[in-house]
Amino acid sequence: MRIAVIGTGYVGLVAGACLADSGNEVVCVDADARKVRALADGRVPIFEPGLEELVRKNGAAGRLSFTSDVAAAAEAEVVFLAVGTPEGEDGSADLAHVLEAAEGLARVREGYTLVAVKSTVPVGTGERIRRVMLQVNPGLDLDVASNPEFMKEGAAVADFQKPDRVVIGTLSERARALLGELYAPFVRTEKPILFMDPRSAELTKYAANAMLATRISFMNDIALLCERTGADVDLVRKGMGADARIGYSFLFPGVGYGGSCFPKDVKALIATGREGGLDLEILKAVERTNLRQKRALVQKAVRHFGALEGLLAAVWGLAFKPRTDDMREAPAIEVMEGLLGKGAQVRCHDPVAEPAARRWFHDRVEYARSIYDCVEGADALFVVTEWNQFRKPDLRKVKRLMRHPVIFDGRNVFDPARMRELGFAYYAIGRP
Ligand code: UDX
């Protein structure tokens, strides 16, 4: 099939590359000409395992191309909209880019046009897109389907190629047949394509993310309760997860959730509720707990040291989670700002997110090349992202290098008993 994807952020680029890889002819359109040039040269501006190879391979095979001219979407059988929906002033999703892209598209199309909306957009946006496009070009035979994307950063290619489910929101038979055919290669092994009405599809995406965020905040509350009662959250987590109705995934307490989706989508869903006269109290509590959790490590440090003035804090992990260089809403920002605000010096290390951190912190913090350079002379170590590289360091060496062997582990990567044996003052999340 001939496919166009408008927007080459995470979602658009991964979708474009994966759809090309399954044999379609894909053109990706992005207003940012510099980005388009880089992508056409096979350079991917984000760190995402497997993505660059896929872009290069399919580019070389002539199935994947990049342009800033939306006219390239004129002939596509399906046009995906995958532009960003940043947080607006009142917390609701800002649809300016989506509506602008839809207008531009309407100008270059004739006859039947199928738009599949991959951007995360509030309920009813599909209908707004439809109105805007028909205003610009009343002659269009237009279907606007909702096709939310559930991929995770760091595993985006694998998630797109082997999704748990594909959600398609449309009442049009023609759109249903086209999208069903396009996704057929990805759902071979009993994973469903769920067809539904557009509004339900739009809400599904927010509800899924909000539920996952709720699980995390719930577990962060339970972890705090463990700390107050002397229980071990790791055992509680296993005991809970063994119940098939609960399951093991997404039960890890930590330093709070970050990233480009959960914080923004929880806010946007609260805003949708507000617009409908509904106070979504659970989600407001989820946000409050998350902010408290992002501050938990620094609070533990203040309790341990009394004051942080003049101390050297080492921070392992900047990205909001492993296998990405994304620092959007990363807990590391709150942790490091908290440390700086209390007068500590900060030296940090991340396998890939240092450039992103430099854009935020500039020279307010030091950047270390390795985990060991990072801890040299440090008074405390903060583990903020659970990169595999941080799980099995030479802990004796770490202890030798540090001025004070104190660790605040925000991801529970170490074993408390072993840390005690090695002589560290060790603070984890929800563990004695
Ligand atoms: C999320 C959704 O998982 C994905 O389906 C959606 O398309 C986009 O949003 P992503 O933001 O890439 O994906 O990251 P995810 O792996 O879900 O993690 C989100 C945050 O939750 C991270 O900060 C992570 O550290 C945190 N988290 C996750 C926990 O604190 N505990 C857990 O048990 C799981």
TrEMBL record:
Which parts pass through the membrane? none
Q: Which UniProt keywords apply?
A: NAD, Oxidoreductase
Instruction: Specify the superkingdom.
Output: Bacteria
The record's top EC class is: oxidoreductase
Named in its record, the pathway it takes part in is: Nucleotide-sugar biosynthesis; UDP-alpha-D-glucuronate biosynthesis; UDP-alpha-D-glucuronate from UDP-alpha-D-glucose: step 1/1
One Pfam family from the record: UDPG_MGDP_dh_N
Q: What SMART domains does the record tag this protein with? A: UDPG_MGDP_dh_C (SM00984)
Q: Which gene encodes it?
A: ugd_1
- UDP-glucose/GDP-mannose dehydrogenase C-terminal domain location is 314-416
Which Enzyme Commission number(s) are on file for it?
Answer: 1.1.1.22
Protein name from the UniProt record: UDP-glucose 6-dehydrogenase
Organism the protein comes from: Anaeromyxobacter paludicola
State the reactions this protein catalyses.
UDP-alpha-D-glucose + 2 NAD(+) + H2O = UDP-alpha-D-glucuronate + 2 NADH + 3 H(+)
Give the family, as the similarity comment puts it. Answer: Belongs to the UDP-glucose/GDP-mannose dehydrogenase family.
PANTHER family documented for this protein: UDP-GLUCOSE 6-DEHYDROGENASE TUAD (PTHR43750:SF3)
